[in-house]
Design a protein that fits this description.
About 55% of the residues lie in helices and about 5% in strands. It has about 270 residues and is mostly helical. It is elongated, with a radius of gyration of 22 Å.
């Protein structure tokens, strides 16, 4: 019996010395990167009207809540005394309630997405050492914006990634667009718009359509590389691939800062 107590005491001392901590099971893998589950708090409030969930949204996710209300839904100012009621009522639509339930079922677990982000951000950091890795969060919109890029944050709307065969999509989106509204497109879309926020097309208002397409082709080519998947395949990505094959010493940063007039023609 004394030996048993001694063993327990030693284990406790080791745990304290190594600063081990018991972690609650959140349902997500313990990856080095994890998506912030703003959507869970959001859906709790929007389906039950739970006041504690509303408090969590305001206190723990102020940026996400402001962005959703003011920039995505555009239903008013977050400081409006009636905004919480407007927000709750907005989502009482039967279609949106169905979407909320479907999103929370499909994305109850995001282990695969967290792992995909982890690998992709590691590669992105090698290509762009000075680019800060953003915090990424999930939310539920209203079938509008897929990805929102803010100051050090990237948010993606689960309602836009419910699968190409999701029945509701057939009423609103053509087949080609539905093929991109899948779970596998979350990471590529987030990375694409995050890179674009750092490297917008210079003189966008004066650029030709070809220049816009080539600039996007550059970013899509980079996204293919950092995700390790051929996500984007079009003639502009192919043009960039041929150019980079001839100029293998060119970095991704240098590619994105090539003069627009270059047109990748050399």
């Amino acid at each position: 019996m004394n030996k048993f107590y001694l063993i327990v005491a030693l284990i406790l001392m080791l745990c304290i010395g190594c600063e081990w901590r018991l972690k609650p099971n959140t349902g997500d893998a313990d990856d080095s990167f994890a998506v912030e589950r703003y959507d869970r708090v959001q859906s709790l409030y929007l389906t039950t009207g739970d006041f504690s969930a509303l408090q969590q949204m305001s206190i723990n996710y102020p940026i996400q809540t402001r962005t959703l209300i003011e920039d995505v839904l555009k239903i008013g100012n977050v400081n409006d005394p009636e905004i919480n009621t407007k927000f709750l009522n907005f989502y009482q639509d039967t279609t949106l309630q169905t979407i909320i339930n479907e999103a929370e079922q499909q994305y109850a677990n995001m282990d695969d997405i967290n792992k995909d982000f982890t690998r992709t951000f590691e590669r992105l950091h090698k290509s762009f050492p000075g680019m800060e890795i953003p915090k990424v969060y999930a939310q539920i919109g209203s079938l509008d914006q897929s990805v929102i890029v803010g100051d050090k944050y990237v948010g993606f709307s689960l309602d836009k990634y419910l699968g190409k065969n999701y029945p509701l999509y057939e009423k609103f989106y053509p087949e080609q667009q539905r093929s991109l509204m899948t779970r596998q497109m979350i990471v590529p879309d987030c990375i694409l718009f995050y890179i674009l926020s750092h490297y917008p097309l210079p003189n966008y208002g004066k650029a030709t359509q070809q220049q816009c397409d080539l600039h996007m082709g550059k970013i899509q080519w980079i996204v293919n590389n950092v995700t390790g998947r051929k996500v984007f395949a079009n003639k502009f990505v192919a043009t960039v691939a041929r150019y980079m094959k001839k100029h293998s010493g060119l970095t991704d940063q240098e590619l994105l800062t090539l003069p627009v007039s270059d047109e990748l023609s050399n």
